[in-house]
């Protein structure tokens, strides 16, 4: 099912459930644990090649199962979207698997062969003239028989398209990716149908109370350029979208030097490189879109804000957000953020004991979302109206202790690094999904960052974590949003000062 991936909304839901989700990992107190043994970081066995036109090919071979996932990724998404284009990267994603020039030729030849009357009404005379440009389209007859599973996602800083099929079908799957990427048609009738589908997705989002919590937080945290953090866009922009805007997005971002081919599974990397060269090597590069259309600079928050959002919810949810580090500007802080967040969400951490074991909250966590263009840090708690004020006071009391030497032990620090690696190894068990991890990192950080990710995690020190906390969290302006029903607020009586911890 095609869907918009509301990354931060999903993060919000994960934070609420993190306590129960992590109990199988480590449920003994840190003071009773034996010292963690330091290990060397494992190497991620990816192989890469950059074509002369700038397109990157990333391969993670694994012959354990005769399946292969082929993914096409583009540095596009809401971070490229001014208000008038907001949500259109996602709409483009919906059009990716629709008619392209190769499928149009195949359809017309089929109708011509069958002498179907619809042949002339479909404009087939023009489509058949494309044959010298496309060269190969007969594989389209195999697509429905290959067991190919395809889908796409749009995030803030990447758009991803992927196929999973059996190993013998690599070539037709790669051909389809090539033709969808390079030769879209943007049929007006199909476009109208996909606009309706995207509008229905937006309506579903608007029916979820959690959407308002997340959107209010992001709109205030990135107040000058909120569209750059909103992949879904708005009903107004999607409803007004045109195929000309699709072609505009294609010309700016769907170019080889802004794209990657990510292949995981039962493949020979050298064969993938050869096929990649054959299918994509003649694709002409364009000017770097981020030179011609540079990223915006999100201004820092001038002061803290506390906001009440009334929605018919059963529990009180409070999300506190800070502007965090950006990849390429403060890489060390991104590693520190990941390690510290993992320490925090362990069920035996001091943070969890103070907020969850105390029964002040039913769930609490802090997480960082890695981004090239300012990654948000978010703390979230779930509580009751009777305990809301006390829970907020306890949250800020814990934050004030984050930089103290005894807030986490050396054993917890080393254990977090090991468990983060274990999480990554476990996720590689499903290579069809791991390709999306690779393309996310390729787009957001560059593949070299990810290649050295675990080595740098292993090197993260307590001093770097404390620096991260002091630079981005403690005594820094924040946006605190409470999602609460009108009836609950009459009991809780939360104020802006409660939500922000009384900080300016």
Description:
46% of the residues lie in helices and 14% in strands. It contains 24 helices and 11 strands. The chain is an alpha+beta fold and 504 residues long. The two termini are 44 Å apart. It has 2 domains: 7-32 and 296-500, Cytochrome Bc1 Complex, Chain A, domain 1 (2-Layer Sandwich), CATH 3.30.830; 47-292, 2-Layer Sandwich (Cytochrome Bc1 Complex, Chain A, domain 1), CATH 3.30.830.10.
Find the structural class using helix and strand composition. Answer: alpha+beta
Widest beta sheet: strand line-up = 1-2-6-3-5-4
Low-pLDDT ranges: 1-37
Overall radius of gyration: 25 Å
Q: How many structurally independent domains?
A: 2
Euclidean distance between termini CA atoms? 44 Å
CATH class of the largest domain, please? Answer: Alpha Beta
Share of helix, binned: 40-55%
Average pLDDT reading: 88
**Gross CATH architecture of the largest domain:** 2-Layer Sandwich
Number of strands: 11
β-sheet strand percentage = 5-15%
- Shape call: globular
Write the CATH fold name of the largest domain. Answer: Cytochrome Bc1 Complex, Chain A, domain 1
List the helices and strands and how they pair.
Layout (H helix, E strand, L loop, with lengths): L6 H15 L25 E4 L5 E6 L5 E8 L13 H8 L5 H14 L3 H4 L2 H5 L2 H4 L5 H4 L5 E6 L4 E8 L3 H13 L5 H19 L2 H13 L13 H5 L3 H11 L5 E7 L3 H12 L8 H4 L12 E6 L5 E8 L7 H14 L5 H8 L5 E6 L7 E8 L4 H12 L10 H18 L3 H14 L2 H5 L1 H7 L2 H11 L6 E6 L1 H7 L3 H5 L4
């Amino acid at each position: 099912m095609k869907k918009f991936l509301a990354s931060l909304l999903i993060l919000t839901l994960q934070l609420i459930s993190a306590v129960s989700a992590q109990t199988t990992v480590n449920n003994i107190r840190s003071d009773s644990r034996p010292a963690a043994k330091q290990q060397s970081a494992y190497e991620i066995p990816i192989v890469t090649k950059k074509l002369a036109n700038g397109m990157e090919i990333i391969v993670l071979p694994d012959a354990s199962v005769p399946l292969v996932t082929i993914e096409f990724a583009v540095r596009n998404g809401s971070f490229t979207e001014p208000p008038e284009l907001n949500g259109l990267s996602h709409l483009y994603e919906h059009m990716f698997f629709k008619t392209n020039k190769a499928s149009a030729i195949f359809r017309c030849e089929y109708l011509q062969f069958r002498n179907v009357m619809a042949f002339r009404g479909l404009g087939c005379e023009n489509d058949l003239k494309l044959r010298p440009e496309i060269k190969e389209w007969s594989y389209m007859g195999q697509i429905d028989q290959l067991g190919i599973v395809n889908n796409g996602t749009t995030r803030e800083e990447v758009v991803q398209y992927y196929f999973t099929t059996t190993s013998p079908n690599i070539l037709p799957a790669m051909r389809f990716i090539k033709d969808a990427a390079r030769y879209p048609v943007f049929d007006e009738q199909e476009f109208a149908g996909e606009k309706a589908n995207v509008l229905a997705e937006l309506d579903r989002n608007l029916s979820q109370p959690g959407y308002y919590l997340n959107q209010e937080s992001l709109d205030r945290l990135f107040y000058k350029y909120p569209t750059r953090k909103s992949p879904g866009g708005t009903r107004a922009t999607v409803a007004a979208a045109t195929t000309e805007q699709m072609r505009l997005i294609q010309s700016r971002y769907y170019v080889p030097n802004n794209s990657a081919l990510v292949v995981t599974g039962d493949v020979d990397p050298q064969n993938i490189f050869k096929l990649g060269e054959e299918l994509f090597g003649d694709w002409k590069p364009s000017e770097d879109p981020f030179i011609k259309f540079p990223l915006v600079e999100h201004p820092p928050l001038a002061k803290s804000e506390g906001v009440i959002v009334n929605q018919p919810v059963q529990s009180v949810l409070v999300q506190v957000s800070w502007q965090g580090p950006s990849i390429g500007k403060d890489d060390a802080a991104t590693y520190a953020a990941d390690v510290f967040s993992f320490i925090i969400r362990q069920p035996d951490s001091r943070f969890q004991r103070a907020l969850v074991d105390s029964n002040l909250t039913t769930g609490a966590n802090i997480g960082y979302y890695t981004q090239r263009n300012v990654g948000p840090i978010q703390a979230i708690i779930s509580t009751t109206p009777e305990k809301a004020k006390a829970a907020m006071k306890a949250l800020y009391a814990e934050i004030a202790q984050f930089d103290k030497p005894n807030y986490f032990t050396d054993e917890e620090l080393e254990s977090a690094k090991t468990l983060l690696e274990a999480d990554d190894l476990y996720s590689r068990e499903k290579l069809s999904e791991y390709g999306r991890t690779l393309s996310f990192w390729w787009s957001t950080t560059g593949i070299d960052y990810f290649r050295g990710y675990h080595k740098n995690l292993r090197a993260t020190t307590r001093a770097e974590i404390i620096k991260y906390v002091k630079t981005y969290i403690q005594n820094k302006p924040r946006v605190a949003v409470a999602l609460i029903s009108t009836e609950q607020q009459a009991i809780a009586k939360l104020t802006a000062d409660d939500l922000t911890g009384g900080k300016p």
